[in-house]
Amino acid sequence: MKKAKEIMMTPVETVSPAMSLLELEEFFAAESVSGAPVKSDSGEIVGIVSKTDVIQTLRMHKSEKFREIFAPEPTAKDIMNCGVFYVTPDASVRNVADLMIDQQIHRVLVGDVHNLVGIISSHDLLELIH
Known about the structure:
The protein is of the alpha+beta class. The mean pLDDT is 91. 42% of the residues lie in helices and 18% in strands. It has a three-stranded mixed β-sheet. The protein has helices at 4-7, 21-31, 51-60, 64-70, 76-79, 93-103, 122-129, and strands at residues 35-39, 45-50, 86-87, 107-111, 116-121. It has seven helices and five strands; from the N terminus they run H-H-E-E-H-H-H-E-H-E-E-H. It is elongated, with a radius of gyration of 15 Å.
């Protein structure tokens, strides 16, 4: 059975908690990714942000109430998902898939909060099937 280390993407590009929505859009386009871990100044992974998070925030940003809460401009820290899940490099792909399904997530990080060695997306799992 395949292991996480065999299908993970590396190196993992991370974003700063202070990145604006525009910077996130540009990052996703430049890196051809749909999501990325958010890395604090101290080097810890503090969340994950995706294109979907950006799109949803842009839609909500049209609301006056939303603009009052997140004025003047939301950042990655404001819209990221703080629920980050890790697997070891030797975890089975089956365990990775089960984790994604059970937690209803699209990305799993390989390593730990201080030592990120890879990332696996639901797209990576779909490529194994085809």
